[in-house]
Specification:
The complex is a heterodimer. Chain A is mainly alpha-helical. Chain A has helices at 3-26, 35-63, 69-74, 85-88, 94-115, 121-149, 153-166, 178-185, 196-209, 232-246. In chain A, helix 5 (94-115) packs antiparallel against helix 9. Helix content of chain B is 24%, strand content 23%. Chain B has helices at 9-16, 29-32, 58-72, 95-104, and strands spanning 35-41, 44-49, 78-82, 106-107, 126-130, 138-143, 149-153. A 4-stranded mixed beta sheet of chain B has the order 4-7-6-5. The radius of gyration of chain B is 18 Å and the shape is elongated. The chains are: A mainly alpha, B alpha/beta. Chain A binds chain B through residues 36-37, 39-40, 43-51, 53-54, 121, 124-126, 128-130, 132-133, 136, 139-140, and chain B through 51, 53-57, 84-88, 129-134, 136, 140, 154, 156. The structure holds zinc ion (ZN).
Chain lengths: 252, 156
Amino acid sequence: MTRDQALFQFLLRLGDSTLILSHRVSEWCGHAPVIEEDIALANTALDLIGQTQFWLELAGEVEGKGRSADDLAYLRDVWDFRNLLLVERPNGDFGKTLMRQFLFDAFQSLMLGKLLKSSDKRVADIAEKASKEVAYHVERSAGTVVGLGDGTPQSHTRMQAALDDLYPYVGEMFVSDAVDAVLIKVGIAPDPASLRADWDALVGRVMQDATLDIPKDAFTHKGGKTGTHTEHLGYILADMQFLQRAYPGAEW
Amino acid sequence: MVIASLPSVAQVWDCLDTIADPEIPVITLVDLGIIRDVKWQQDQLVITITPTYSGCPATRVINEDIVSALNHKGVKNLRLERRLSPAWTTDWMSEKGRIALEDYGIAPPEAKGTPARCPQCGGDDLERTSQFGSTPCKALWRCKSCLEPFDYFKCI
Ligand SMILES: [Zn+2]
C-alpha cells in the first residue's frame, strides 16, 4: 500500500464517519424535545457536514481520479464506505443520540488534537478548523449525558441502556491496521490505539458524573472502517443518495 | 483603457467592506475578519477567504456576492482562494463590526466566552439558554433584568 492509498482510506474513514453521523443527527430536525435542542442538533449536523466536505474533497484530491466530495458522498455503495459502525446506529431516543454523540466527540476531539501535528499540512489545516467546532460539540454532549444520566430515574435508566447498547461499538475507533501503519510511519496520523487511554479517562470522568456504569464486557463489533457494515447503512444511503441517483448531476 | 480602470488593492478592500454578511446584514465581510488577503497577480485579482464555520451555508452566498460586487467594479479575472489555517477567530472581528452587532441586538464575542452585557438594557445578570443559535456563529442567552432573550456571537 502506497502512502497515498493509505491516506485515501484514512480520509474516507474521517469523512464518511462525519457524513453518516451528520445524516443521523439531521434526522432530528423538527423532532427534538425542545426548540433549543432542535437548533443545537441541526448546528452540530451542519458542522459535521462542513467537515465532511473538507475531508472528502481532500480524499478525492489524494485519490487523483477527479472525484469530488459530492461524487464520493452520493455515488458510492455501502461496501465503499469507511465510517465507524457506531455512527450508523439508529438514533433511538434523544438521550441515546446524545450518548452516541458524546462517545464519538470524545474520540474525535482526541484524534483531531493529534492531527493538528500531522506531517501533511492539508490534514493539519482541516484538523485545526474542525477541532474548534468539536470542542463545542464535546462540551455540549458531555453536559447532556451528565444531565440525563444524573437526572430522573427514567432518564438515568434510559442513559444506562443507551451506554450498554452502544458500548460494543466504541472499540472499533481504536483498532489499528495496515492503513494506520503506513500513516504512522510518515507522521501523517497517530496510532488510533494510542488514543484509548485518554479516551477512557475522559469518558470515565463523564460517566462518573453521570452516575452511569461503563460495561465490563470488552466485546467489539468492527468492520466499518474496512467496508463491512450493518444493515442500517444501506437505508441511510437510500435516503441520502436518492436525489443524485434519480437525477444525476442535479444542482441546488 | 480597461487596465487603467481596474481598482487598486485598497479600493478592493473598500469594496469588500461594503458587502454585508448575508446572515447578519449590519456587518461587512471585512468586519467579520474572513477576508485574509487581497492581491493582484498580473491581471488576476486573488482574494483569500477563510470560512467562519466548516458548514456555514452563507459561504457560497458570500463567494457569489464578492464575485458580483467586483464584476461590477470591472474586475472580470478573479480567483477566490480558501484558506483554513490559521483558523478563523472572532479576534479578527473589527471594532466597527462589534459596535454594529451590539446596536443590532447581538452581543459581540468576548474573550472570556460569555457576553459582557445585555444588548437591550445593558444589564449583566445573564444566563445561557443554548450553546447554539439561529446561525452557526451564535448562542442563545437571556437577560434576567429585562427578561429579553438575545443572540450572543460565540467567541472562537
Ligand atoms: Zn436586558
